[in-house]
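Quick one, T. Sequence first:
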Amino acid sequence: MVPTRHVPVRNYDIPALRELDVAHHLPAQSSYKLQADMGGSRIITHAKGSTVYDGEGHAILDGMAGLWCVNVGYGRPELVEVAARQMEELPYYNTFFRTATVPPIELAAKVAGLLGGNLKHVFFNNSGSESNDTVFRLVRTYWTMKGEPNRTIFISRHNAYHGSTVASASLGGMEYMHVQGGLPIPGIEHVMQPYLFGEAFGEDPEAFATRAANAIEERILAVGPENVAAFIGEPVQGAGGVIIPPPGYWQKVEAICRKYGILLVSDEVICGFGRLGEWFGFQHFGIRPDIVSMAKGLSSGYLPISATGVSSEIVDVLRASGDDFVHGYTYSGHPVCAAVALRNIQIIEDEHLVERTREDTGPYLAKAMAERLAPHPLVGEARSLGLIGAVEIVAEKGTNRRHGAGGQAGPIVRDACIARGLMVRAIRDSIVMSPPLVITHAEIDQLVDTIVAALDASADQLAALG
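Structure tokens:
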């Protein structure tokens, strides 16, 4: 499959931009040596629908929706128009001085309605990392105001991703992130992840769900229930490799939290706003969290905004204390970002993208993966839920044995996908995908067929790894 070419909308000097990229720009979560060795980054210049275009005119099907976020697709004039209109009316004002602007008030009410239940309050931030930093401070503040200041410990999972700030990276369970900066900070415990294929291959799913949930209870008891503040988890671990927990896992986790009076935090930064075929992942799994962090799909990435949904019980305690919650940002509740997020949600509603993901495109992706990827001799498992999925690459069919020392297969196949006009992400020995919710059946076919072609093309290189 040869990628198509497209004429850029503007006449950029791409070689000069790549030189400037190396000379001055430090990309996020990158090897700066590799950036320099490559002579600069691939320059993305424009996009439409589910496709992005680089400076050389290559069309690339965006199998990652940017970074798990462009749910409504690229090129939405409605979002441009609402941003411009809000900028003309009021481009910025803060929420520090007992003031608020119209868009964040309306957005908070809308998000609270989508969350449902007692999750009636919303605190705005700028990124998913900041949303989880807010969770960290809010939870500890709540327990102190409630008269239980010893409840400071968070329980999270190995290989979880909750952000890149000091607190959120500590909440996450990625050891390679902890190495940089002397993390995690004190008061965070990590337990096993519910990764059936990777850590319990061949085990009965129900038994594994019980074992993985019990690991949380065991850690609670080890550190003392009176010291535990909250458990935090992604409904589906995204950056960890699209780890879809076995049936019953989340119900067991919720029961454990209720048993010991621990707050349950659902990190919906990736799963929220339709990704799993419900507005939020916790709704798919049928649980009731006390706090919900969210970002990405909130604005489909058009402007930076995130939010933290909070239960009435927690807010009642904060209000009763009368003290300030001394936390927040210059751009918390930014009016332009909030206006765009509100319009983004309206697009998702008007086009029934949540229902479409649940009833149409999600099942279509699952069927295509089952029929064309799962049988491939290099694939150990092809799994998906809604419009998020993963392909496990193995050295021996019917096992979870990896090529070589492990961790090299994913990048090889990813690069072969990109060369064929598909952007996906490599996570160790897997290829993961999270396309825009507007993706078509034809584009899903292209996505799956390109991964198949990339696997075929990579076979000899993978075999050489051993």
